Fold this sequence. Notes:
This protein is of the alpha+beta class. It has 4 helices and 2 strands, in the order αααββα. Helix 1 crosses helix 2 (about 20-30), helix 1 runs antiparallel to helix 3 (about 35-45) and helix 1 crosses helix 4.
Amino acid sequence: xxxxxxxxxxxxxxxxxxxxxxxxxxxxxxxxxxxxxxxxxxxxxxxxxxxxxxxxxxxxxxxxxxxxxxxxxxxxxxxxxxxxxxxxxxxxxxx
Length: 95
């Protein structure tokens, strides 16, 4: 989607794309596929599916960083940095 932020829609699509976590399994039992979830996210955001940019950024564009800070109820704080949403979603699915 090439947004400058990570929203819940990115996490949802990342969890479904990863396919191995509990969230992906639950969504799979509800017959939620990556294709129909992506189409629904694009519909809500008002983006045409045909306007979806290529998966690879242009060669002269530096990849963005995704910063993630988790605050646990026991007071622990974990800070991570990722270069793509799929890695962030994979990390979150393991937590």
